[in-house]
Amino acid sequence: MTVLNHDFRSDTVTRPDAPMLAAMFAADVGDDVYGEDRTVRALEEKLCALMGKEDAAFMPSGTQSNLIALMVHCERGDEYIAGQNAHLYKFEQGGAAVLGSIQPQPIENLPNGSLDLAKIKEAIKLDDIHFARTRLLALENTIGGRVLPQNFVINATDLARKHGLNTHLDGARVFNAAVASGVDVAELAEPFDTISVCLSKGLGAPIGSVLVGNKQHIMKAKRLRKMLGGGMRQAGYLAAAGIYALDHNVERLALDHVNAKRLAQGFAQFKHVTVEQPQTNIVFTKVDPDYADSFIAHMKENNIIVSGRYGELRWVTHKDLSAHSVEAALNTAADFFSSI
Ligand SMILES: *Cc1c(COP(=O)(O)O)cnc(C)c1O
Q1: How far is the CA of 338 from the centre of ligand 1 (A)?
Q2: Phi-psi region for residue 139, left (φ > 0), alpha (ψ -120 to 50) or beta?
Q3: Residues 158-217: pLDDT tens digits?
Q4: How far is it, in rounded angstroms, from Cα 138 to Cα 121?
Q5: Backbone angles phi, psi at 242, to 5 degrees
Q6: How far is CA 147 from CA 41, 66, 249, 279, in A?
Q7: Which helix (H) or strand (E) segment is 264 a member of?
Q8: Pocket residues: Cβ below 6 A from ligand 1
Q9: How many angstroms does the Cα of residue 265 sit away from the middle of ligand 1?
Q10: Exposure winner among 25, 38, 191, 192, fewest CB in 10 A?
Q11: Residues contacting 274, CB < 8 A, separation 6+
Q12: CA separation for the pair 249, 254 (Å, rounded)
């Protein structure tokens, strides 16, 4: 019998359950490059309604969705402002520079994930022959598992608009932000021209993201998607999983947040570990560097899988980890720390 791992590396590791697979199997599909897949269209319309936007495009991944958003808002030689820790700046290989000839203007993130408004203002270039044209402010919510303060979002996007910039939200986990803060996802999306939402993170779909925005932006996004090789054919099988996820897996994100809190409380008991209290489904721990490697090895031997290096570990709770998995991780960690 194979022993199942308790896999805390990411909320992308979930597998479709039987009812999600049944929904996929039953999907009514067509060629979506011809705009003929009714299930893809239904998913896009569902996102429009949830986010309060005009149009949407189903994307193969969050990375492609963010890249396309950057290319929608910025032409060759233009510039976008984003946090130093923003996924679309730091974790997407600089794709906007490579494929879009778009220059990033990163700004240090504050500890709560926001940006200093004065620094944003300073980074917006004057209309001057020396400078790239600053076109876009891109934010991320949640960022590192933290919910962006909504007053920051409103002030930052107001500032951007006042200077003629568009705004994009990397909302890979925006439903986690909505569930944790009790604020409707449409309200979190309202200040932005475009929002990218991942279906394949905590929502538990196997594949896919959706970019939402106004009709013009999404029309341009669909052209770019085709150019980048993201035009998918009978994608309704995948979209059906996304629809199922939105119908069944949003409210349950609260359980992931409870599990993350319990995990953090447990880790706070160990003297060789420091832990940040989580707001959503991501817990960061620092293990004393002297014990970090042996700790990770001990956890792995006991089927607890976690990502990180140099003792800085990231634990992500999700649909396929129960409260039992959290207790298993804490008990395994307790064994380790009582033996050193
Ligand atoms: C995962 C993630 C992405 C990219 O999504 P992929 O589907 O893995 O390409 C973008 N932004 C954030 C914040 C993410 O967590």
Answers
A1: 37
A2: beta
A3: 999 999 999 999 999 999 999 999 999 999 999 999 999 999 999 999 999 999 999 999
A4: 14
A5: -65, -40
A6: 30, 19, 19, 7
A7: helix 253-267
A8: 61-63, 66, 87, 140, 170, 172, 198, 200-201, 209
A9: 27
A10: 25
A11: 285, 286
A12: 10
